[in-house]
Structure formats: structure tokens, C-alpha cells
């Protein structure tokens, strides 16, 4: 190389020249690119805003407003032109160039986007969210979300609007937000007040607000949501306010980590919250949690401590009304681990209390529960190990307050239930995988203020273990019934619960005093229904069952199962079905008893209402009154329960199943009712029905009795009264009475009371005849019936051409009680009466007597005092001397003094002549054998030993059938030997006779009663 030739540049010089060339080229390229971008800025801007959308089938349009280098503003609409899915009033976009100098292809990168008043239309229906025409974009993002390492533009939203259409109405959300480098830095969203209505839901929401702020790597979230009212899915809310505060680390999307401290506080307060029948009023819930978190999504672990406090003014849970509710739950070592299947575990200590509670007639006060232990659960299992206690006071007033008329047993039970305290001091709950058991460390006890005790316990095992268990319950003392309930086994099945139980109880139960029940069987609970099935009869007994005016005493019987469950409960109703056997008891209000009863029972009820029927097949009813009113009868019928009362019908038969009466009854919910009965026309026949077989009151009507009669009546009652009345109509009745056969008895008796038997004065019974010693005809009795006696106003009967008239008297139903009366003789011819008497073959008396005879009747017999009789016309008396001749060992039956031709000789002395003929005694005999009297007076009085004394004074003449006179020779007069022989008493001799005699009336009446008994009549008072 020559010197004139230029020398080649050195290596550094060559490098500088190459760099300059590159820079020049870059400047030229950059200028050219910038010039190109500037010239094509509208195209680039459109591609940035809507090109990507249109490439994915989303129609869009842009209206550019301003352009400068690196930015532009525009208005954008996406979706259908007439109904866009997105509408943005103003978009401000800042972008920069990319190229080989950055190691990237030549292009444009969006640096920031600011959206003013963007409006997005969406729909949420049938559980699915739809953005209309933007749905393909959502699906693409779901399949391929943005990569965290990719540069993310800054995005700001100003006054954004989301119009959300739902099944329950439109909702509008507004708000502002900001994202930087793909991280949500700020959000302030508001939900406008809205009223939502739809299928099964109605809600009124106030303005809800969500605020989010991110500082460095931590995010604060605050949510407030007022609820004016809400009803749906069985739940309801009124005037509620929700506040949620949450602080935690912002998720690291690049490293897939979420580590840092977490703090949360939830506050919920409202006027009313309800779920079905359960509710709380004036409630406040505050929950806090402080802890740490680490991991990412499936490996997330949250660990910390928390607490929950709940207070409420009042509430209702499972039918229990509660006041002043408070609970405080402390949670320690809370751990949520997702890597092992969302397992949550914690150490818990909880305390809950209520000031008072009420469920029906049950009251609770100062009740408190304390529980502590370990809790762990995941979606498939729960592990528990808890121990706790419950204690408080209570009272039950289901039987009402103690009343003055309560039996002692019922009053004691009411006092015992009026106040008690209870304690379950050691309840253990354990659960592991599929095992769950509940045990009692010590028995659960309830102590009444009166000293009674109720004990729930289980010997040798848990009361619940893996859906089955057993327990025992014992009740005793302090006025409580003595009861034992042994549930030997119960089990929870897929259909419900089954249990085998046995119960024995003695004592007072509500309206039952001295009750005794023994039962065993199977209890089933399925689909909300409870049934009791017993393999054998249940024994029932009670000293007393209170039913108002119709209380039962000494009740006994058995309730036996049929083809259906004996007892069932479903939907708040109960049903009792079975057959009652061996029913027996007493009804003091009507002084009656029943026994040997059987009945079919099908009753159901809800609350205090009862429906169904009881069919009484056969029961023996007998009288228990001191003075029996009727003999045992059989009864059958049917009772129907409806609208809180009872109606029914019944039939009554005699022991031979002959119909006696039919009737109906009704008993209202107000305690008022009545029973009406009608015997129909009862026919009495010799070989059929007989009155004396029905009632002791009819024993005067001896068998056989023939005829007919009818009785109707009613028995009515109320809670405070008991009344009855009836009518007895005797058409005609022929029978044998103690006085002899009665012919044609008839009458109508209006009974003002049946229990006890009573009738107003003025009742009349008549008879055609009473065939006694002498026929009695035209019998007429006027009477009334008092509580314990028949009040006879008057009675008359025709006899001997005259009449016997009884003055008013009272005849007690109790035959052991004495009674008195007066019978008046009105011109009664005594001839037939004397002839029919036991001494009629020795005495003949023709006399029409009148007079008044007072008498008294007692168990000792009939006694007469100061009776006076007199003859109203002349008559005759003939007494055979055989009736007056003394017999050894027999007292003299009569003492007669007489006046014959002016000489008075006591007949008693004349009869003691030692067997020698005495003229004057002969005259006495003859005078009484044929005496025609002009006057007769008699005094009648009872004497000792039941004898009836009669002192008669007669004046008249000797009047033999053949005229008599005395014829004596002179020698007989001189020798006076006529005094020693029988001489005829001259006819017409004046007689003044006093006859003092007595008869054994008691013996005569007894003989007559025995005679009548042989004829078929019943012995009654003489």
C-alpha cells in the first residue's frame, strides 16, 4: 500500500462508525415507525379498543374524541347496536411502542385505561350469570386467564354502573375501582336500595356498600349491608344490618402464595330473624378471628383464635319462648387445612344462658349451659370430645292453680310442679368418624321445691351410641306420682326412631287421683309421627277421675291393642285406638257402679279438641244407694266426640237381655249436657218381665204381675248443677201385694227428680180392687215423693159398704225407720172382716162402725194408741162359749161383766166355779151368744208383746133365734136348787156388757204376710 493511499481505519474507529450507523438506522426506523403510528393512530386505537372484540364475534363501535402521541379518548359501545351490553361514555387510553430495542415485536402496549361512566348490562337467572354478547369472552378468560408475568395496564373505573337483571327484579350497582399491575388496589361499590319479588322470595334491601383498599401487600375489606325485610326459603329478616371487616395479605399470583396475618370481624344486628317457627328478636352477633394464613388455594392453612358472642332480647326455638338470650363461645387453636380435605379443628369453650323461657305451661328461669372440649370436622365427618353441664329452674302449670275442691293428691302434684330446679352436671359427647355417643357422668336430676325428685340415668353405657341407646327415668316423692320408665333399647333408623319401653306409675295424673298404670310396648317415630304398639293389654286403675259433676271412683280396666297402633301422634294430633276390657268403677253423683264393661275406642284430638267414638259393647250397672232404687241392668251404646263435646245413644236391658230403655245423651265443651231416655211401652207378663225384678221400690208389686206402663225422663248437668225429671204412666197393672191381689192399678206420676226420687204433691194412683181379707175397692191414693219418703196426702178405699180414709202421712223409703198415721172408719160393716179373721169361726159381729184409729209402724210391728170406734146403727154380737172357756196354761182371752135382771156378776168369777153349773155364768154365756146391741163403743190400744187390746161396751138385749123363758115349780123356788142347774136366759133380757179382750196382732200380721209370701208377694212393712 502506497503512502498516497489512505490508511484503513483502526479497530476503535471502525466500531464507532458502526455504532453511528446503527443509531442513524434506529433513528430513521423510529422516525419512520413513529410517523407510521401517528399516521395510522386511528386504526391502532380502534384495534386497541374493539378489534379484539370483533375478532371474537362481539360487535363493537368506537367514536374517537381526542388524539395525541401515546394516547387518545373515545366513546365505546359493544354488543347489539340498539341494545349494547357495554356502554362507556369516555375511555382514556395511554399506550407506548414496543420493538426490537426492547426485545419485543414492533407494536403497541397499553399503559393505562381510564373508564368514565361505564355501563355494563348483565343477567342472573336460574343460577347462571350472563353478560349477553360478552359471554364468549368470559368463557375464554375462564379457559386461559391472563398470565401474572405479563405487563398489566393500570385500569381505573369512575362511576361505573352494573345493571343486573334477576328472577326477582332489576338491581343496580355503582362504584369506582382501580387496578395496578393486575392487582386490585381500590374498590368502592354500592348497591342501590331495591325491592325484590319472585318465586318464594321477597326482600327490601337498603344501600349496601363494599370498600376495598390495598396497601403494599395487605388488603382491607369492609362490607355493610342493610336489610329492611326479607322473606324466603322459610326464613325472614326485619330491620337488619350486616358489617364485615377483613384484613389479610393480598394473594401473590406470581408465586401462588397467600401468607400473612388475617383479622376478621363480623357484626350482625337486627330487629327480627326467623327460620320457620324459630325466631329471635333484638339480636346481635359479633364474631372475631385473629390468625395467620399460608399456602395457596388447595394448600391453604389458616390458624388462629376467635370468639363469638350472641345476645337477643327474646326468641323462640323448638316451640320454646325465650327471654334475654346470651351466649359466649371462645375458640382456641382454630385451624383450617385445605390440603387434607378442608379439615377444621378448634378447642372450644361455650357458655349460654337465658333469663326465662316458656313452652306452653312450662316455665324456665335462670337457665345456663357450659360446654368445652375439642371439635374437628370436614365435609365427611365430625370429631367431637365435649363435656358440659346444664342447670336452671322451672315450673309447670298445666294442671292449673291449687283449688279449694282439689283432692289432696292433685293439690300436692300441682304444688310439686309449681317450682323445681334441674341439673345435668356431666354430659359427655364423643364423635369419631361414624361413631357418636352421649353419656351421663352422673344422672340428670330434677328436684321440686316440695322435695320430689326426677332422675334420668343409664347404667353401664351411654344413653346414645351410634344411633341407638337406652335409659331409665324414675319419679318419686314430694307430691309427684311414683313412676318408672325403662327404655331398654331405642334405635334411629333411616325411617325414624324405634324404642322398646316399659312404664309403671302410681299417683295423681291431672284429673286422676290414686292412678295406677302399667304398660310396655314399642314406640316408633317416623316422618314426624309417633306410634305406640303394645303386645299386651295395658292395666289402668284410679281411685278417682274428676269429671265435674260426674266424677268416677275406683276405676279399673285394661286397654288392649287391636290391629292398629294403640297410640299415635302426627302433625300435632294424637289418636287412641283399641279395646277396653274389664271396665269397672263407681259414679257417686248418681250412686251407681259399673263393671264387666267392654268397649271399642277410636279417639283422636289436637290441642284441647277431641274427635272419634267409643262403642260400649256391654257393661253391668248396679245401684249403690243405701236404699236400692234398681237391680243390676246391662247397658250398651256409642259415644261420638266432636267439636269439644260428646253425643251418643245407649240401650238398657235386664240381665236376661230384655229391653228396658233407650236414650240419647249430649255433653258440650262448656261442661253442660243431658241424657234423655224412654222405656217405651213395657209389657209385664207372668213368664216375662216383672216390676219386682227391676227395683226394690216395686217389690210391693209381687210376681206374677201383668199389665203395661211407660217411663220417660231426662238427666241434665252443668259444671255447677245436676237436675233430673221424668214421667211414669201406668196404664193397668194387676199383681199380688202384701195386702192381697191388686186389680187395675193405674195412674200418672210426674217426677220432679230421679236422683234422688222426688215428685210434687198431687200425684194420683188408683186401683179397682185389693182382694185382702175383705175386698177393698175404689182405691184412691194422692201423694208426692220427697228425697227419702213418700208423702201421702190422702188415701181412701171402699170396704164393707163404707170406707177407710187415711189422714196425710209420710212413708219413708227406708223400711227400718218408723212412721205414723191415722185411719178413719166411715160406716164400715165388720161382718166380713170378722169372718175372714182367724177367730171368725167363734165370733160373729154384725156392726157398722165409724171412728178414728191412730197407729204407728216400726220394725217391731204395728202399734195403736187411743183408737175409738163406735157403731152407727144397732147390730148383733155372737161369741161362742168355746171362745171364752179358759184352757189350762192359756190366759183368759176376755173379761165380761154384765147386768142381767139387775144383778151384776163378773163373768171371770162366774167362770171359776170349779166345773159346777152356775146359773149366772150360764146367763153370761147365753147373753154373749145372742146379743142384739143398740150401742157399741170400743177403745183400741196396743199392749205389751204385740197384742192389740179392745175394750168394748155394749148395751142391748138377749135375742136368741127361738124365744126363751124360765119356768120353775114351787118346790124349786122353795128349795132354791134351780141355782145349781142351767136355765135359759129369757128373750128380751136387757144386757149391759163390757168386754175386755186382746188379740196377738203381731202374730196375725206375720201369719198373713207369710201366707201372702206363699202366694207370691214380697214381705214388707205391716
Automatic annotation (TrEMBL):
The keyword Transmembrane applies. Keywords: Membrane, Transmembrane, Transmembrane helix. InterPro entries: YdbH (IPR021730). This is Dicarboxylate transport domain-containing protein. The chain crosses the membrane at residues 21-39. It comes from Phenylobacterium koreense.
Amino acid at each position: 500500500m502506497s503512502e498516497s493511499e489512505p490508511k484503513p481505519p483502526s479497530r476503535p474507529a471502525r466500531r464507532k462508525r458502526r455504532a453511528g450507523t446503527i443509531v442513524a438506522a434506529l433513528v430513521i426506523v423510529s422516525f419512520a415507525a413513529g410517523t407510521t403510528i401517528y399516521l395510522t393512530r386511528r386504526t391502532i386505537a380502534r384495534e386497541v379498543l374493539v378489534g379484539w372484540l370483533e375478532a371474537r364475534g362481539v360487535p363493537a363501535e368506537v367514536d374517537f374524541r381526542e388524539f395525541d402521541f401515546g394516547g387518545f379518548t373515545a366513546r365505546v359501545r359493544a354488543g347489539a347496536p340498539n341494545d349494547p351490553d357495554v356502554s362507556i361514555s369516555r375511555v382514556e387510553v395511554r399506550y407506548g411502542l414496543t420493538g426490537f430495542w426492547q426485545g419485543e415485536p414492533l407494536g403497541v402496549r397499553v399503559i393505562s385505561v381510564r373508564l368514565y361512566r361505564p355501563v355494563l348490562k348483565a343477567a342472573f337467572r336460574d343460577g347462571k350469570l350472563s353478560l349477553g354478547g360478552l359471554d364468549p369472552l368470559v368463557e375464554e378468560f375462564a379457559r386461559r386467564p391472563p398470565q401474572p408475568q405479563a405487563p398489566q395496564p393500570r385500569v381505573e373505573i369512575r362511576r361505573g354502573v352494573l345493571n343486573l337483571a334477576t328472577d326477582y327484579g332489576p338491581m343496580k350497582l355503582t362504584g369506582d375501582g382501580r387496578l395496578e399491575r393486575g392487582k386490585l388496589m381500590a374498590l368502592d361499590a354500592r348497591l342501590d336500595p331495591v325491592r325484590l319479588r319472585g318465586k318464594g322470595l321477597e326482600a327490601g334491601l337498603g344501600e349496601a356498600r363494599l370498600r376495598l383498599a390495598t396497601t403494599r401487600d395487605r388488603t382491607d375489606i369492609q362490607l355493610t349491608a342493610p336489610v329492611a325485610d326479607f322473606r324466603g326459603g322459610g326464613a325472614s329478616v326485619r330491620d337488619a344490618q350486616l358489617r364485615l371487616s377483613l384484613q389479610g395479605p393480598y394473594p401473590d399470583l406470581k408465586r401462588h402464595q397467600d401468607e400473612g396475618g388475617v383479622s376478621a370481624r363480623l357484626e350482625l344486628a337486627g330487629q327480627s330473624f326467623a327460620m320457620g317457627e324459630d325466631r329471635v328478636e333484638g339480636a346481635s352477633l359479633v364474631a372475631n378471628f385473629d390468625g395467620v394464613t399460608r399456602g395457596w388455594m388447595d394448600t391453604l392453612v389458616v390458624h388462629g383464635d376467635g370468639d363469638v358472642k350472641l345476645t337477643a332480647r327474646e326468641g323462640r326455638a323448638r316451640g320454646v319462648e325465650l327471654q334475654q338470650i346470651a351466649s359466649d363461645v371462645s375458640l382456641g387453636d382454630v385451624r383450617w387445612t385445605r390440603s387434607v380435605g378442608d379439615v377444621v379443628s378448634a378447642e372450644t369453650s361455650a357458655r349460654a344462658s337465658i333469663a326465662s323461657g316458656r313452652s306452653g305451661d312450662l316455665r324456665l328461669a335462670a337457665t345456663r349451659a357450659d360446654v368445652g372440649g375439642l371439635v374437628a370436622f370436614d365435609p365427611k365427618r365430625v370429631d367431637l370430645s365435649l363435656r358440659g353441664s346444664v342447670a336452671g329452674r322451672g315450673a309447670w302449670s298445666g294442671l292449673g292453680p291449687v283449688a279449694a275442691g282439689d283432692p289432696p293428691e292433685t293439690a300436692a302434684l300441682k304444688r310439686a310442679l309449681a317450682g323445681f330446679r334441674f341439673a345435668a352436671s356431666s354430659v359427655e359427647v364423643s364423635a369419631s368418624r361414624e361413631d357418636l355417643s352421649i353419656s351421663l357422668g352422673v344422672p340428670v336430676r330434677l328436684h321440686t321445691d316440695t322435695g320430689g325428685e326426677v332422675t334420668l340415668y343409664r347404667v353401664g353405657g351411654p344413653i346414645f351410641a351410634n344411633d341407638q341407646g337406652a335409659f331409665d327415668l324414675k319419679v318419686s316423692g314430694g307430691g309427684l306420682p311414683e313412676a318408672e320408665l325403662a327404655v331398654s333399647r331405642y334405635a334411629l333408623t333411616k325411617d325414624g326412631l324405634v324404642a322398646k319401653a316399659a312404664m309403671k306409675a302410681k299417683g295423681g295424673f291431672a284429673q286422676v287421683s290414686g292412678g295406677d298404670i302399667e304398660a310396655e310396648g314399642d314406640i316408633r317415630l317416623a316422618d314426624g309421627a309417633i306410634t305406640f304398639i303394645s303386645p299386651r293389654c295395658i292395666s289402668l286403675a284410679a281411685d278417682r277421675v274428676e269429671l265435674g259433676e260426674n266424677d268416677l271412683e275406683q276405676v279399673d280396666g285394661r286397654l288392649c291393642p287391636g290391629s292398629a297402633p294403640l297410640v299415635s301422634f302426627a302433625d300435632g294430633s294424637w289418636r287412641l285406638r283399641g279395646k277396653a276390657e274389664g271396665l269397672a268403677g263407681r259414679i257417686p253423683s248418681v250412686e251407681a257402679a259399673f263393671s264387666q264393661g267392654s268397649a271399642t275406642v277410636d279417639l283422636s284430638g289436637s290441642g284441647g279438641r277431641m274427635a272419634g267414638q267409643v262403642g260400649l259393647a256391654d257393661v253391668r250397672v248396679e245401684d249403690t244407694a243405701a236404699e236400692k232404687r234398681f237391680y243390676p241392668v246391662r247397658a250398651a251404646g256409642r259415644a261420638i266426640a266432636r267439636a269439644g263435646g260428646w253425643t251418643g245413644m245407649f240401650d238398657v236391658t235386664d240381665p236376661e237381655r230384655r229391653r228396658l230403655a233407650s236414650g240419647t245423651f249430649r255433653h258440650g265443651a262448656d261442661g253442660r249436657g243431658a241424657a234423655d231416655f224412654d222405656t217405651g211401652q213395657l209389657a209385664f207378663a207372668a213368664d216375662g218381665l216383672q216390676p219386682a225384678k227391676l227395683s226394690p221400690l216395686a217389690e210391693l208389686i209381687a210376681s206374677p204381675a201383668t199389665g203395661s206402663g211407660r217411663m220417660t225422663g231426662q238427666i241434665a248437668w252443668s259444671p255447677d248443677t245436676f237436675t233430673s225429671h221424668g214421667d211414669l204412666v201406668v196404664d193397668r197393672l194387676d199383681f199380688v201385694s202384701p195386702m192381697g191381689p191388686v186389680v187395675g192399678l193405674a195412674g200418672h206420676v210426674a217426677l220432679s227428680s230421679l236422683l234422688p226420687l222426688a215428685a210434687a204433691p198431687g200425684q194420683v194412683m188408683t186401683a179397682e180392687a185389693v182382694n185382702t181379707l175383705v175386698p177393698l175397692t175404689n182405691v184412691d191414693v194422692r201423694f208426692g215423693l220427697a228425697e227419702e219418703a213418700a208423702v201421702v196426702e190422702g188415701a181412701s178405699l171402699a170396704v164393707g159398704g163404707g170406707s177407710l180414709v187415711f189422714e196425710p202421712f209420710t212413708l219413708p223409703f227406708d223400711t227400718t225407720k218408723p212412721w205414723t198415721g191415722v185411719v178413719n172408719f166411715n160406716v164400715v160393716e165388720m161382718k166380713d172382716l170378722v169372718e175372714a179373721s182367724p177367730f171368725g169361726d167363734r165370733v160373729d159381729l154384725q156392726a157398722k162402725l165409724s171412728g178414728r184409729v191412730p197407729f204407728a209402724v216400726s220394725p217391731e210391728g204395728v202399734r195403736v194408741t187411743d183408737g175409738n170406734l163406735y157403731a152407727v146403727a144397732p147390730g148383733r154380737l155372737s161369741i161362742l162359749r168355746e171362745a171364752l172357756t179358759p184352757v189350762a196354761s192359756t190366759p183368759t182371752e176376755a173379761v165380761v161383766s154384765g147386768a142381767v135382771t139387775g144383778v151384776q156378776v163378773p163373768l171371770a168369777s162366774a167362770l171359776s166355779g170349779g166345773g159346777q153349773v152356775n146359773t149366772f155364768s150360764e146367763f153370761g154365756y147365753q147373753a154373749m151368744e145372742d146379743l142384739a146391741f143398740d150401742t157399741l163403743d170400743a177403745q183400741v190400744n196396743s199392749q205389751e208383746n204385740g197384742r192389740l187390746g179392745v175394750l168394748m161396751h155394749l148395751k142391748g138385749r138377749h135375742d136368741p133365734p127361738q124365744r126363751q123363758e124360765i119356768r120353775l115349780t114351787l118346790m124349786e123356788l122353795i128349795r132354791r136348787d134351780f141355782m145349781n142347774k142351767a136355765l135359759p136366759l129369757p128373750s128380751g133380757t136387757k144386757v149391759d156388757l163390757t168386754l175386755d179382750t186382746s188379740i196377738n196382732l203381731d202374730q196375725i200380721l206375720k201369719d198373713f204376710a207369710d201366707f201372702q209370701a206363699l202366694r207370691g208377694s214380697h214381705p214388707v212393712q205391716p
